Amino acid sequence: MPASLGIIGPSYPSCRTDGINWQKKYTEKPGRRRVNLRRFLFSTLAATLFCFSDVHGRDMEKIPPPTSPPILEVRGAISRITTQGAAYFDMEMLRALPVARLETATAVTDGVRRFSGFLMRDLLAHIGARGTTVTARALNDYAIDIAIEEFDRFDVLVAYEMDGEPLLPSDKGPLWIIYPRDQHAELQDIRFDYRWVWQLRWLDIQ
To answer: 130-157, pLDDT tens digit by residue?
Structure first.
């Protein structure tokens, strides 16, 4: 190794030139590097934590809490919450979503019925859903997984009215998932009938 690189060896020059103590200069230099490295690591960590906190804060944007007892709870991969990692909605909040209407026959009622409510995809957009599957669960604990892409392909309604009257818990209410089966022949397959969750109470986005 050339002598000029001997600064990492056991001895250092002790001469003074132009008033500079070169031995002191060489021995202090690694120390200064260590201090700078610690400062760099601390600054990087602080910046990372700040950015994570900022992004996390944006990701978990708060929405106003319900003013009456909630009838729908949504949790999982969502970016807008009310509290405790979930979004809670009362009927007034759900009625504030864009209103959608659908006329269709069902497997459990007679004739064509008129339903009013909101599109499931509008609700998912409102809460910033980021998953691929929705688990819909009813008051009686019936649950089924539904691919989110179905809500993009079809105008799936979450109804709170049938024939102009509010849906009651005693008659499939207050919320009922309705597929536009009369508009799409494939939705008349019995497999889709299992997705018509009535007395809907919980949604879990995964």
So the answer is: 999 999 999 999 999 999 999 999 999 9
Amino acid at 38: R
At 98, list the tokens.
Answer: 């864009």
- How many other C-beta atoms lie within 10 A of the C-beta of residue 118? 20
Task: Tell me the per-residue pLDDT of 77-124, one tens digit each, with 9 for 90 and over.
Answer: 999 999 999 999 999 999 999 999 999 999 999 999 999 999 999 999
The residue with tokens 């031995």 is: 23
Q: Which residues contact 135 (CB under 8 A, 6 or more apart)?
A: 143, 144, 145, 146, 202, 203, 204, 206
CB atoms within 10 A of CB 169: 13
Q: Are 103 and 113 in contact (CB under 8 A)?
A: yes
- Runs of H (alpha helix) within the chain: 22-59, 91-95, 120-126, 149-153, 190-193
Task: Give, in order, the Cα–Cα distances in Å from 88 to each of 39, 62, 74, 191.
Answer: 44, 11, 6, 29
Bridge partners of residue 135, in order along the sequence: 145, 204
